[in-house]
Write a structure and sequence with these properties.
Blueprint: E1 10-14, H1 19-30, E2 34-39, E3 47-51, E4 57-63, H2 66-73, E5 77-80, H3 84-96, E6 101-104, H4 111-123, E7 129-131, E8 137-140, E9 144-147, E10 156-163, H5 166-175, E11 181-186, H6 197-206, E12 212-218, H7 223-234, E13 239-244, H8 268-277, E14 281-283, H9 286-299
Binding site for CoA: 17-20, 43, 105-107
Enzyme class: ligase
Binding site for substrate: 170
Length: 300
Amino acid sequence: MSIFLNKDNKVIVQGITGGEGTKHTALMLKAGTNVVGGVNARKAGTTVTHKDKDGNDIELPVFGTVAEAMEKTGADTSIAFVPPKFSKDAIIEAIDAEIPLLVVITEGIPVQDTAYAWAYNVDHGNKTRMIGPNCPGIITPEESLVGITPANITGKGPIGLVSKSGTLTYQMMYELRDLGFSTAIGIGGDPVIGTTHIDAIEAFEKDPETKVIVMIGEIGGDAEERAAAYIKANVSKPVVGYVAGFTAPEGKTMGHAGAIVSGSSGTAQAKKEALEAAGVKVGKTPSETAVLARELYKAL
């Protein structure tokens, strides 16, 4: 089992002919992802050549729109490698086509564009689950990768991971590679994102294969505090947490666009306390967090 993504998902790539789209389409195919085509209005009707996971050449069709790609291929998932200034239109196009899952990798999309797209999705019945933007996407090891996470870090296993940080996603997967993961999802660190910690934790709670949930947060905002309240009220599985940014100075904007700290709200300490009050074990470092997760799993 897994959450949101498995080997049966049919994936299209918005921006398949660009540099990032080309590179990561190849890597996703190598990971076993069922990529069935791409979208680029200016290159509609052409094909791109890639290799499947067995090294055989395949021709992927390029369509003019997401709706056409879905109609012709049966795609249910899209990943967008589109420059920031065009990303809002790409997201809206995917929402209009009612694609069930959309992963937006792009960093630097203006917050008002993401906020508009988020509200647009809500207004249209929330039929598209958006992951991101500014994220590494989602991977169900040995089944499917829709994103930029290196697929060879780890295999399948009992840990469910949700993280605001891309690099910390990779580190946690490496630290717990001996156990493996049901699904690892990078939700992105921007102030407005599609899928939240709570969305992922709710799905992991329902997934029978996920035995321990690892949640990585970072300073700024109140997403981790809200997740703590949700965990306390709704989650029966053990949850381990890590919050990046214990040494961040107050009042300074750090790293990810969402990370600004004012007073005690949004600090790593405040988040740690909220999580611990909800029964979540919180590590001081990613490595310590991995040790806690391993201990909890062995105690099951």
